[in-house]
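Hi all, posting the design record for the shared folder.

TITLE: backbone redesign
STEP: 1 of 1
STRUCTURE INPUT:
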């Protein structure tokens, strides 16, 4: 080949080159950029790299993602330290969670954003993910309007609670009473097996969740999905994760409305 021919081949190779990377996009499980959420929601987000021909591909595991919202490290079940949950602010409060005591949740929690508070003066969460890969550096952003948890329907809540929670927490959400007689250290039978801790009460009796001002329907949704309590202390098995276990009534993933309904039911139960 002459020099001229070599040059032509090179030029042709360049003009038919692959599409170029144009940036990054943060999307929910339906593939769209999230624009709204309610308090209590768990939004599973992932980051795509975008290209000049309109195609996208998920960023690889080599990518570094730095989120503008905090990552809460759940406390271990015996911890007595102060809560690590962020406090409510003027703008919506959201966080990612690592719950090391519950390895069964690691995959489900990766990229899952929990909405804790709708904000005071502003209800828009400006989400920013700084993405670095071996050959690109950029930001994926979303502007998410965060609404308060919907009002609950106690009748529907009772139906769901009976099907999903009452085996362990009792029909009225009273929790578990005395340990198995004569056991030392005390043992509690939960769903057919023995444990060294009881099932807590959730209803409106004193000190239970539905009577405690620290709890609300949104927090119940987060707790039940992510297996943490209101102080970000990890909840032990056999407490299921209601993010990975469907609602037995609808056979669909639990909605935040389902948890609002359960909380409304628990608020009516005082024994
Ligand atoms: C198989 C038994 C089981 C089922 C079913 C179950 N839980 Fe639990 N739950 C537990 C246990 C055990 C704990 C305590 C774990 C611990 O102390 O580490 C717990 C703790 C909790 C807590 C923390 C309460 C507090 O005051 O710290 C909440 C909230 C909760 N469960 C909600 C639910 C909801 C809502 C459902 C139904 C959708 C449900 N649970 C179904 C066993 C269960």
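Okay, here is what came back for every position:
SEQUENCE:
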């Amino acid at each position: 080949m002459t020099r001229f021919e070599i040059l032509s081949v090179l030029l042709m190779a360049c003009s038919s080159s692959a599409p170029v990377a144009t940036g990054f996009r943060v999307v929910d499980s339906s593939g769209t950029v999230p624009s709204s959420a309610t308090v209590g929601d768990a939004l599973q987000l992932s980051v795509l790299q975008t290209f000049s021909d309109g195609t996208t591909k998920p960023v690889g595991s080599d990518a570094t993602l730095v989120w503008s919202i905090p990552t809460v490290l759940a406390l271990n079940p015996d911890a007595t330290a102060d809560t690590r949950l962020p406090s409510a602010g003027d703008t919506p409060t959201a966080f990612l969670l690592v719950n090391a005591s519950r390895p069964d949740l690691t995959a489900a929690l990766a990229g899952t954003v929990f909405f804790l508070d709708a904000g005071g003066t502003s209800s828009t969460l400006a989400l920013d993910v700084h993405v670095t890969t071996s050959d690109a550096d950029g930001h994926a952003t979303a502007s998410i309007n965060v609404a308060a948890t919907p009002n609950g329907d106690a009748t529907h809540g009772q139906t769901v609670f009976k099907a999903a929670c009452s085996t362990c927490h009792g029909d009225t959400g009273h929790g578990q009473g005395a340990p198995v007689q004569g056991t030392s250290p005390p043992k509690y039978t939960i769903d057919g097996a023995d444990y060294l801790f009881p099932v807590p009460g959730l209803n409106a009796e004193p000190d239970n969740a539905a009577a405690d001002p620290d709890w609300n329907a949104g927090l119940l949704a987060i707790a039940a999905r992510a297996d943490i309590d209101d102080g970000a202390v990890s909840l032990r098995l056999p407490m299921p994760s209601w993010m990975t276990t469907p609602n037995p009534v609808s056979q669909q993933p639990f909605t935040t409305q389902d948890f609002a309904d359960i909380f409304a039911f628990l608020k009516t139960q005082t024994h």
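COMMENT: Residues 77, 164-165, 167-169, 190-191, 197, 199-200, 202, 209, 220, 223-224, 229, 235-236, 238-240, 242, 262 surround heme C (CB under 6 Å).
Let me know if anyone wants the other runs.
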